Amino acid sequence: MEESVSAPDPKPGRGLGSEFVYWPLCLIGVALVALAVLGPEVERRLLLDRQIAGMQAEVDALQHTRDQLAAAEEALKGDPEYRERIVRHEFGITRPGEIRLPQPVTSESLRAGAARPAMAPVPEWMRIVAWFSDPSTRLLALASGGTMLLAGILFSLPTRARKAKAVVEVAAPPNA
Hints:
Blueprint (H helix, E strand, L loop, with lengths): L18 H60 L1 H12 L15 H5 L12 H8 L3 H22 L3 H12 L5
Helix pairs in contact: 1-4, 1-5
């Protein structure tokens, strides 16, 4: 019996199991799985950052109010003209011959110390990763990433044809 020895492949490693398919599939698969796992954590982090900014704005407003009240207390203790002006304003007391004018409404009196939180800009990568916190997107990323990892591993496994080819190449080295 005569065994036919096939000529070596002119481009070894160019099939489906080559490193040109294996590594990209594995890297994309790992990236998708990582995005699916980290997505909810980034979303939670962004929510916490918003809450911290809101609380910090509230603390700043309360400190501003505290400073105003401390200044008013000092003025009430030491300035008789200020006390008189406050009493006259609060109780509507006028001197004989005075006309009381209505007080204008200012934006500060409307606001009453409510400050809007100053939000730091969110980096673009955090917005992209937070997109994966949606359950359907997360499931899709996990499924496709796992499939790519599995495909990369399966493509890298030696098949019978590749094993036979490797045995033939070892048994009959190419002639120089």
